[in-house]
Amino acid sequence: VRCWSNIPFITVPLSRAHGKSFAHRSELKHAKRIVVKLGSAVVTRGDECGLALGRLASIVEQVSMLQNQGREMMIVTSGAVAFGKQRLRHEILLSQSVRQALHSGQNQLKDMAIPVLEARACAAAGQSGLMALYEAMFTQYSICAAQILVTNLDFHDEQKRRNLNGTLHELLRMNIVPIINTNDAVVPPPEPNSDLQGVNVISVKDNDSLAARLAVEMKTDLLIVLSDVEGLFDSPPGSDDAKLIDIFYPGDQQSITFGTKSRVGMGGMEAKVKAALWALQGGTSVVIANGTHPKISGHVITDIVEGKKVGTFFSEVKPAGPTVEQQGEMARAGGRNLAALQPEQRAEIIYRLADLLTDQREEILLANKKDLEEAETKGRRLALPLLKRLSLSTSKLNSLAIGLRQIAVSSQDSVGRVIRRTRIAKDLDLEQVTVPIGVLLVIFESRPDCLPQVSALAIASGNGLLLKGGKEAAHSNQILHHLTQEALSIHGVKDAVQLVNTREEVEDLCRLDKLIDLIIPRGSSQLVRNIQKAAKGIPVMGHSEGICHVYVDTDASVEKVTRIIRDSKCEYPAACNALETLLIHRDLLRTPLFDQIIDMLRVEQVKIHAGPKFASYLTFSPSEVKSLRTEYGDLECCIEVMDSVQEAVEHIHKYGSSHTDVIITENEKTAEFFLQHVDSACVFWNASTRFSDGYRFGLGAEVGISTSRIHARGPVGIEGLLTTKWLLRGDNHIVSDFSEHGSMKYLHESLPLPQRNTN
Question: What are phi and psi of 287, to 5 degrees?
Fold first, then answer.
């Protein structure tokens, strides 16, 4: 027997013992029976007199949606006192005599005092109206609701507790939503409280404990407590250093400070935490979240059930490592220390990492072998292109090491490079210098070789780095990250690169706008689109599609055409820089060159899709393309016919993705027209699309290929991971000295740049 609010309560439910609560947010989607507790601040209006009808309607809609999914929903609600107060105030005003109102004068009428309303009377007047409102709202979703009023005394009597339990189970069996509230009309008088301006508020703390009791009693999987704050903070919300606690563990309450309670109610956050911990010990998972914020209240309940990072999640399972928020802070601090190193020291770290890739190749390949075996045997057999990306080899590691050494060389003159110097006035000089962006989040799929590449670029540019790899490469990523931190340790900046191993959803990571400055996705077009959609306030560098074109002009060389097309399409068809659409000049149809192209594609087993114009020329055409804007990522491509280079440019602009586009021709004038007019990140003449790559460009490696028009475009190396800041050096200068009658004049003279280190 446990005691809660001075009331003995048996923690073991009547029918069976509780199971364990969910350990992770991602498991909340499996919750079957859910209690939603609505605090007074959620249900009532800002003037604390009457109900927040729009907010309440949104909550009912979410509860109805979950109920119609087959879940069993229960609501513990406040609001009867506020609703009753509204009705009684209205009645009192109407009962004033007309004569008294007329003789009092307008100003006196406006200031007329409303008598103090007894809270139990307010509750009695408000209960029926509150329930009628719930019934009307739930009826819109073809759901029946039932009211249950309880008092603390109902938990003293064993028979009453059994009756309550049986009633609730029967309502749930009939697909009815129970709406539970304390019977505030008959409870003992409360202590006076001024929050409701003359109305004593009853039982908010009791409603917190009531929700916890019912959750445990009814073997509930999840208790959602909605209040007017985002969740639990490590210090009072609103203070400068207050941070939302994502996951709260039993025992952590000693490390936090409770502030004042909500604008209405008796309990406050401390009561909610106690109730939550009590429910957690009884086997019920708990989330405390904001039910009043206009931007999230419309989906806060469904977001919680879907496992999204909303509010504070109470868990008994404490992870061994740091949280992702802590990792973000570590990466921020480590990145700043990294940027403060000398260029030679950053280069030394990268050289060390390159050496480790070759020295520890056996350990790396052994870990990679585990990933490949699990991909084959654990029921998640990957497609062949993904398996190829997942696989590491000695030659791949050697190539990685060579690329890293190139990065080390180029890192000597990256951070702190002066790119502009201006003399503003005498003894007032301005410099624009390169600096790191801050903290990068790189999300990558099935590409363990991406980890050391991106790490080296982050080190060279002085950026902190959060890495989120796919679970299919977990063993490979773990050893590669360990080696990266070993290299960073030689100059004491181990924390600058962090590997996220917690069960964080990508969508949740994309919301950490206070920790992350830039997101770089490396993976499928679907991954990139999902991240671009999920990112809230954080810029995303990358491309969602790689629809690359090769245009074969009428003046193309026979020797070059098949070589370039074969390499562009067949060398690595899953790459984002592989050929997807082949554009052929109309005059080349039914020529030996055209036949050679088709024969080569057939030999390479490339499936051909005909564009609309190409299909019109053929009696028996290949399957007509469903869309000219398709990234196949396999041995497939579309062929379309063009009347001119101008039409080819227009086609690329209409159907391309601004990634990489190629012209094959011996006509220099035509080639230059193509190069100047195609608006893509990479435009080539007589070269394979596959050259669009950071390593092949001499950047050492790339964090990705960007089709954005801001900051960085094309393969992104060190330069794309830098921004700038302005340094102004003066000597007692003030702006008023440069006014019309001031003593100084602007010079704005360009000064020579310091000589770059080219060694």
Answer: -130, 130
Please name which of 437, 483, 432, 474 lies closest in space to residue 457, comparing C-alpha atoms: 437
| Domain 25-94+116-187+200-314 top-level CATH class | alpha beta
**What residues contact residue 500 under an 8 Å CB cut-off, 6+ apart?**
324, 327, 466, 467, 468, 509
Query: Beta-carbon neighbour count of residue 726 at 10 Å?
Result: 10
Determine the Cα–Cα distance for residues 688 and 575; give it in Å rounded to an integer.
13
Judge whether residue 195 has pLDDT over 50.
no
Element of type H or E holding 559: helix 558-570
Q: pLDDT band for position 512 (50/70/90)?
A: confident
Mention every residue, 6+ apart, whose C-beta is less than 8 A from residue 566: 600, 604
Tokens representing 388 are: 């190829």
Q: pLDDT tens digit string along 288-312? A: 999 988 777 789 999 999 998 899 9
Q: Give DSSP secondary structure letters for 257-280.
A: ------SS-S-HHHHHHHHHHHHH
Report domain extents, the chain. 25-94+116-187+200-314, 324-417+433-534, 549-702
Dihedrals phi, psi of 221, to nearest 5 degrees: -80, -35
- 430 phi/psi in degrees, rounded to 5: -115, 135
| Backbone region of residue 455 per phi and psi (left: phi > 0; alpha: psi in -120 to 50; beta: other values) | alpha
In this structure, of 259-268, 358-367, 463-472, 537-546, the range with the lowest mean pLDDT score is 259-268
DSSP per-residue codes, 358-405:
HHTHHHHHHHHHHHHHHHHHSS-PPPHHHHHHH---HHHHHHHHHHHH
**pTM beyond cutoff 0.85:** no
Give the best-scoring range by mean pLDDT among 147-151, 184-188, 341-345: 341-345
The DSSP output letter for 167 is: H
Distances (CA, A) of 12 to 2, 17, 216: 10, 6, 8
Topology of the domain covering 549-702: Aldehyde Dehydrogenase; Chain A, domain 2 (3.40.309)
Q: Give the integer Cα–Cα distance in Å for 520 and 702.
A: 11
Measured between alpha carbons, how far is 617 from 669 in angstroms, rounded to an integer? 29
> What's the rounded Cα separation, in Å, for the pair 91 and 667?
90
DSSP-assigned beta bridge partners for residue 664: 552
How far is Cα 336 from Cα 395, in angstroms, rounded to an integer?
A: 34
Name 470's Cβ contacts closer than 8 Å, sequence gap at least 6.
444, 445, 446, 447, 523
The DSSP output letter for 247 is E
User: 288: exposed, middle or buried (C-beta count within 10 Å: 0-12, 13-18, 19+)?
Assistant: buried
Eight-class DSSP state of 54: H
What homologous superfamily does CATH list for 324-417+433-534?
A: Aldehyde Dehydrogenase; Chain A, domain 1 (3.40.605.10)
- Cβ(145)–Cβ(135) under 8 Å? yes
With both helix axes pointing from N to C terminus, report the angle between 119-139 and 80-95 in degrees, rounded to the nearest 10: 110
| Predicted confidence (pLDDT) at residue 472 exceeds the cutoff of 50 | yes
CA separation, residue 426 to residues 443, 492, 583, 747 (Å): 49, 42, 60, 8
DSSP-assigned letters across all residues of 643-712: SSHHHHHHHHHHH--SSEEEEE-S-HHHHHHHHHH--SSEEEESS-GGG-STTTTTSS--SEEE--SSS-
Q: At what angle do helices 119-139 and 53-68 cross, to 10 degrees?
A: 50
Chain centre distance of CA 439: 15
CB 196 within 8 A of CB 259: no
